[in-house]
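Hi R.,

Here's the chain you asked about this morning:
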Amino acid sequence: MMARKAVLKVVTPPTVQDIIKTLNDNFLQCRDFGHQWVGYSVRVEKRRQLFHETLRCAMCNTRKNRLVTRTGEVTRTTYTYPEGYLFKEYGPFTKIDREAIRITVIDNFLRGKMPEEFMIKGDKA
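And here is the predicted structure, written out as tokens:
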């Protein structure tokens, strides 16, 4: 009887280009320009004299939650991201990764692939 050789499956992590291909236009915009916070709400926690703020990104629907003291100090900030926004297996984006995202946004605009709601009306390049 022949011994079976163990076969190793090599898993390569995604590249930033692989990730960019999966991001929708709203996610690309937020990753390039930053979030557009709207939809503010606040809940008061009287016993501990704290405010729980929640903001929502108009572009990608990320939620930003802040815990604020009665003096205005932000003691904790957490984020809740929509499905498909984070790539935990990839890790944080580097400066070079962000440059690749930025070039993709510019390329989409120049090729006319940018959704109309992202355009500034009446401006000439």
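One quick note: The mean pLDDT is 86.

Cheers,
M.
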